[in-house]
Design brief:
The protein is built from two helices and no strands. The protein is an all-alpha fold. The chain has one domain.
């Protein structure tokens, strides 16, 4: 059984929601932007670049 990181889990969850719900292009872009920012902030915390 492979490990499921929070990012992987969220990715799969968002994928299901996007597939299950019809959204306008703008709503989809907004959702992807929010998700992209979430991933960047999550990955950024794991990297000691700000020190």
């Amino acid at each position: 059984m492979s490990e499921r990181t929070p990012v992987t889990f969220l990715s799969q969850d968002y994928g299901r929601r996007i597939a299950a719900v019809k959204t306008s292009d703008q709503e989809l872009k907004d959702l992807l932007q929010v998700y992209t920012n979430l991933v960047k902030s999550t990955v950024g915390k794991e990297r000691p670049n700000d020190e």
